Amino acid sequence: MSVPSISERPVQAHYPVGASTGWIAAAERAAGKAPEWPVLAGRARRHGTGACELAALSEPELAPLIAWLVQRPSLPFDFLSVHAPSKHRQLPEVELVDLLLTVAPRVDAIVLHPDVIQDHATWRRLGATLAIENMDPRKDDGQTADSLQRHFDALPEAGLCFDVAHAYAIDPTLHEGHAILDRFGERLRHLHVSALDGAHHHVALNAEDEERIRPLLERCRDVPWILEAPIA
User: Fold this and answer.
1) Cβ-Cβ contacts under 8 Å for 169 (sequence gap 6 or more)
2) Is the pTM here over 0.70, yes or no?
């Protein structure tokens, strides 16, 4: 495989592009530090002010994030999303959505894993701010266009957060990724961009990884791209 030069790499040439705080927080924890939202947002800014995703992937992270956001901190990002919790869930679904509704007017998207949904009507309250993400092989729902269909049928205003690494892991031929974009491309709000390791964890994206997913990237030029891992 011919590896493109940096100038040919679509992720580095795209705008807007920015970082998820998820992998930044992991680096903070690895360094023995307790991640704090103002610090995470500041570090995300180093990767560009075009976009940022504040990733409260674990439910205990959500309340501090919301408490910070309701103070209306001055943030430089043109596009801002919040990733709703998918781990360590304890709150009733209605209370979780109530919390997210408090910040929905301050962000452009709230990303949700479809396997978290128990009652679609509850999540429908988030309207067009909600963005459903396609899943990786570890999940048993939301991996394909067909399995996403019932969620979008029940959430007619929701958008799509397209994870290109998940799509590649499900089908390296990219046929399924193209099927998702064919069916739901009009709902596309932003991308998650990274590579995956053998355990399907997000890892640094290198030029060969980019070349493999380039056909999907080329179809998503008009929306923000969020890095879920560094660029190698």
Assistant:
1) 136, 137, 196, 200
2) yes
